[in-house]
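hey can u check if this looks right to u? its 125 residues, i copy pasted from the old doc so theres a chance i mangled smth
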Amino acid sequence: YGTAGFRSKADHLDHVMYRMGKGFTVQQWDEIYTDLPNRQLKVKVADGKVIDTTDDERRTIKPPGLQEKIDDLTKKYNMSRAFARPSGTEDIVRVYAEADTQENADALAHEVCLAVFHLAGGIGD
């Protein structure tokens, strides 16, 4: 697995290339993409298999209600998005959040972690 944001950055670049055509240098492409502030956290869960994802790990399909909660939380912050995905090697769920400011990215990540904890069998503190 790459970092949570890698695939979305590649998708964004593909989209921009499609919309704007060819002829840009790497430097020009770099100038039109700006990373948003983000935060990556993890939540210990009793069983990492409780989380299942789709859409290149950008949307959860299990447990019920988690994706809807994430969608509701992202509506609270400007230019935001968030993902939750299972680790694959540990009983943890990795959370990625980004927003217009670092403060908002941190707050969104924390709220998504709380949702994961409550809906996906979080353990510990």
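Residues 20 and 68 are 33 Å apart (CA to CA).
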